[in-house]
Amino acid sequence: MMLRRLLTNTGWMIGARGVNAVLSMVYLAIATRELGPERFGLFVIAFTFAQIVAGFCSFQTWQAIIRFGQDEEGRRTVTGFAIALDLAAVTAGIVIAAFVLLFFGQAVLLPEKMLLPTFFFTVASLLAIRSTPTGLLRLHDRYDRAAYADATTSIVRATGAGIAVFLHPTIQSFLIVWGAAEIATAAMYWWLAARTEPIHLSRISLTRLPREQPDAWGFVWGTSLTASLAIASRQLLVLLVGVFGGPALAGIYRVASQLGEGLLKLSQALLRAVYPELVRNPDTAKILVGKITRIAIGTGVIVVLLGLVLGEWLIMAVAGREFVGATIPMIVLAGAASVELVGASLEALLVARGRAISNFVTRAIPLTVGLASLPWLLEWFGVVGAALVVLGTSIVTVTSLAILTRRLRA
Questions:
Q1: Which residues are CB-neighbours of 66 under 8 A, at least 6 positions away?
Q2: Do 307 and 262 contact (CB within 8 A), yes or no?
Q3: What is the pLDDT of residue 82?
Q4: Under 8 Å between Cβ of 295 and 158
Q5: What are the mean pLDDT values of the chain's consecutive 10-residue runs (410 residues total)?
Q6: Plot region of 2 (φ>0 → left; ψ -120 to 50 → alpha; else → beta)
Q7: Membrane spanning segments where (predicted)?
């Protein structure tokens, strides 16, 4: 019964991501062909900057809601705590974005005319933080509603990109479309969450939950720091590729990651589906993790083989000949995503057992080494070097997760 529910919930998320994957090829093709490598690279830098700020400032409140919201009173308290964290994140993010763009905008290769559009897009990304409504939907196993909300992003992007082509296909117009997609998705999430669980705004507080649950802050910081590492390993890497290699190289790497890391989204979906089941049924965790890991290994092997056979054709079909240099990095990133897929259930097990800080440390050390080596790897291997950072980090991390979970079971 538990495995069936898990696979059903995962299926809803995969279905939404399947829709997003198809539509993402549409809007990616439009953006790359209309802007070209150099301007698309600048768009990628602006987009990535906003994602980094939103990612570093936001909290993984969905995990806190599932951990502390198993009864009605707990749900009210943890939801108020989560909303308070979201409000603090938005405020902090706006201040940080304004400061960085004002004083260090040129350091990230953004021309002066791009600073204000990038700031407004960052504000939209912050306002679109939706971890809290996501947690409410997952707590009630309403993955179907979350799937509908997730599909909003790609639908708005694909539609808006098509309109932008006929009106005025500039970097700014694509940023407006992407920002509108973020806001629309967040609005859909909150609307569906409110229909699922009444949201009591009077319970908004940063102090009530920690008084009732002494480990609340430790859990929230542990899960959020781990999520920040995910941002660093993906989004910050794109930005650093642009800083060290130029906007065009950042654009090529972004195309490679958009297509090659599709399996990473599957691993994230698996993590989000497995985690609630491990919280509810800790006694059957070992059996569940074993089954999911075997499924993940088979899926990863198939995807990497498809990348080897169809990779160059896919790049040519979606982005065009100017981005053919993204082929090998795409295959390497698909390999990294396959490794992460295997580790998704192991990570969920650690977090469900309250080992969020251990999970953070496990990811932090190899990522720090990888980012430090990036300038040399770019010099030696070009954009492939950035993909090798991700692959090496994933291998070391998942190996460490396997060792930790084995000790935890013992």
A1: 135, 138, 139, 275, 276, 279
A2: no
A3: 92
A4: no
A5: 49 55 74 84 89 87 84 86 93 94 81 91 93 88 81 89 86 92 94 88 86 84 75 74 78 75 54 52 57 65 71 71 77 80 72 69 83 85 84 86 73
A6: alpha
A7: 12-30, 42-66, 78-104, 116-136, 237-256, 295-316, 328-351, 360-378, 384-404
* Rounded CA separation 98/250 (Å): 23
- The amino acid present at 406, given as its one-letter code, is R
How far is residue 327's CA from residue 310's CA, in Å, rounded to a whole number? 10
Contact status, residue 16 vs residue 91, Cβ threshold 8 Å: no
Q: Which two tokens stand for residue 347?
A: 């990570």
- CA 243, CA 262: separation in Å to the nearest integer? 25
| Closest by Cα among 143, 127, 221, 135 to 182 | 127
Distance CA 335, CA 260 (A): 8
What is the spatial distance between Cα 322 and Cα 324, in angstroms, rounded to a whole number? 6
Find the length of the chain.
410
199: left (phi over 0), alpha (psi -120 to 50) or beta: beta
Q: Which of 82, 80, 40 is nearest to 61 (CA)?
A: 82
SS3 204: coil
Interatomic CA distance for residues 349 and 286, integer angstroms: 9
CB atoms under 10 Å from CB of 227, counted, come to: 19
User: Rounded to whole angstroms, how far apart are CA atoms 43 and 305?
Assistant: 31
pLDDT tens column, 156-171: 998 998 898 888 888 9
Judged by phi (left if over 0) then psi (alpha if -120 to 50, else beta), residue 244 lies in alpha
Give the pLDDT confidence of 223-263 residue by residue, as tens digits.
Answer: 787 777 777 667 777 777 877 777 777 777 777 777 666 55
Q: Would you state the pLDDT for residue 292?
A: 64
Please tell me the distance from the alpha carbon of residue 120 to that of residue 127, in angstroms, as a whole number.
11
Tell me how far apart the alpha carbons of residues 169 and 159 are, in angstroms, rounded to a whole number.
Answer: 13
The pLDDT of residue 408: 66
pLDDT tens digits along 29-47: 788 888 888 888 888 889 8
